[in-house]
Amino acid sequence: MYTLYLYHDFFLFQTCHVQAVVTMFNYQQFRHISAPGWQLGWTWAKKEVIWSMVGAQATEQGDCSKFKSSPPHSCKRDPTIVDLLPGTPYNQQIANCCKAGVIDTFNQDPSNAASSFQVSVGLAGTTNKTVKVPKNFTLKAPGPGYTCGRAIVGKPTKYFTSDGRRATQALMTWNVTCTYSQFLAQKTPSCCVSLSSFYNDTIVNCPTCSCGCQNNNTRPGSCVNENSPYLQSAIDGPGKYTGQPLVQCTSHMCPIRIHWHVKLNYKDYWRVKVTITNFNYRMNYTQWNLVVQHPNFDNITKLFSFNYKPLTPYGGGINDTAMFWGMKFYNDLLMQAGPLGNAQSEILLKKDSATFTFDKGWAFPRRVYFNGDNCVMPSPDAYPWLPNASPLTKQPLTLPLLVFSILLATLLAYV
Description:
- 8% of the residues lie in helices and 37% in strands.
- The protein has three helices and 28 strands.
- The chain starts with a strand and ends with a helix.
- Residues 190-384 form the COBRA C-terminal domain.
- It comes from Brachypodium distachyon.
């Protein structure tokens, strides 16, 4: 479960209007809100209306026929709010707004881990005792998956001047906590893991039907072959911006595949190559991130072309989980399926003599997450195993014994 907080500060009453600032803080360590962005909804407790907004807008105005002269921004009992786009005029902006609803993770970019807007509410009351807290909060980011609790009134938020010498406070502050569940967000997984190693010719592919199966009878048009003549028309056709993936036809049918390859073995170090492949023809993954769990991650020595941050989800000094993401303006944008639809890096790890081994699949990850979603792992029985022995390794040992036996027999013949 993942948590996202919403803070609502009522800070000014004027002519029966309540001015409020709503801020969403994304405290999730490795789940961001990607395009097309968040949608926030609630149900008013009374007959409130939204007179105006700054930094966001309601998707529908609703029935405002009883307001003759100047109709409100929205009269809906259950409004849906969306962020404004980049490039919005400055007189319609406030801090942390106008990013098309995209909110980064707290680990990747704390400065962009919040989104705010200001709303002027009418018919709400004139004091902090008559203002009623809305209910039935919903958050789509951009699809389902979040469940929001009820609003809890807390201590009024304090605001400090730039010199820090004076503080003002909101008249009323309340917050809502929204938790995320991958099972509610989607029926099938969204990524899978494949494995390979230098000591075994076996390449373990993603499990068959990891994210669904090819079935033209029940799911027509669910995938497109890479060399299909209808590929371009399928990409440009209906549904491009609905968030529904259009994937390349594979045995696993996943939009994202993570490949873990044990590449080299040194005396004191070993090297891994990680490749992220995008099979989705409709999605560029902006500010993507990858979380991997492995017991040797407490000895990461060198990383190439990825950013890295250790995570300690279990506490107690256990450092076996690492978060990776692309470098800004280099590979932080994972392009859609095609020649450029991949990102890769190599990780150099120092060996711990007490635990290191290539035997029994120890060199492969325990869990993998992409953009916060748990990826399907192959069965442990299918992992590339370290071979016990081979004829090639025994031959150099037996050949000198054979030569020695021939020489000894020749010497005895002359005695």
